[in-house]
Amino acid sequence: MCAAPSFAQSGDIEAGRDVFQRCSGCHQVGQGARNGIGPHLNGLFGRAAAGLEDFRYSKSFQRAGAGGLEWHAETLDVFLENPRAMTSGTRMSFPGVKDETDRANLIAYLRTFSDNPANIPEADPTARARDHDLDPAILALVGDPEYGEYLSGECTTCHQAAGGDDGIPSIVLWPEEDFVVALHAYKNKQRAHPVMQMIAGRLSDEEIAALAAYFGNLEE
User: Fold this and answer.
1) CB atoms < 10 A from the CB of 158, how many?
2) Does residue 15 fall inside a structural domain?
3) Which of 68, 83, 162, 177 has the fewest CB atoms within 10 Å around its CB?
């Protein structure tokens, strides 16, 4: 157990809330937070790496947790500066928070959502609403992972099936709903990326569901 919560005590919680926006595309925290592309961050302090039973972590994080890595202010500071320095095989495409003050503020903010937050008052909840209006019938489609594997060749010319990334985000083990929402956002030109718009535009609703089922359950 780390004895000195100096990062959390010295950071600016409100400024940390702003820094957290860099993380909010993948992680949720606060009332109603749930796992998405990344695990939720409630109760993070004192938790072992890969410590949530209902989230599928990369093997790199599983090894780190089995090796005794726990999340405290000091370990978070090292990890946030350069995630791959601590867990080289992580699927996270996040480059890190290089500014020491920003890291201290973010750590202080996250600390407020853990038990017994070292005399830091609880912050307001920051549940993140779903920002899409996709037809529920599309989300209800059950994809065929075998068909998704057949279709996946065009995806894996850029995205690595092994789950890592070299500047291109991983799509392995994405929650299926998030995958479907993202592909339809490209298809409907709500997300700006010409190549992805072209690829998604050629896919039917059933094909998108199949790809989501395949990549969402792909073993590393």
Assistant:
1) 15
2) yes
3) 68
Position 134: which residue type? L
State pLDDT tens for residues 211-220.
999 998 887 5
Q: Which of 167, 154, 163, 168 is nearest to 215 (CA)?
A: 163
Q: Is residue 121 part of a domain?
A: no
Taking each helix axis from N to C end, the angle separating 205-216 and 176-187, rounded to the nearest 10 degrees, works out to: 140
| 166-200 confidence digits (pLDDT tens) | 556 778 888 888 889 889 988 988 877 888 889 99
Number of domains the chain contains: 2
Residue 73 clears pLDDT 60, i.e. is over it = yes
Among 66, 95, 111, identify where a domain stops. 111
Q: Which residues of 175-203 are buried (b: 16+ CB within 10 A; e: fewer)?
A: bbebbbbbbbbbbeeeeeeeebbebbeeb
pTM for this model (two decimals): 0.55
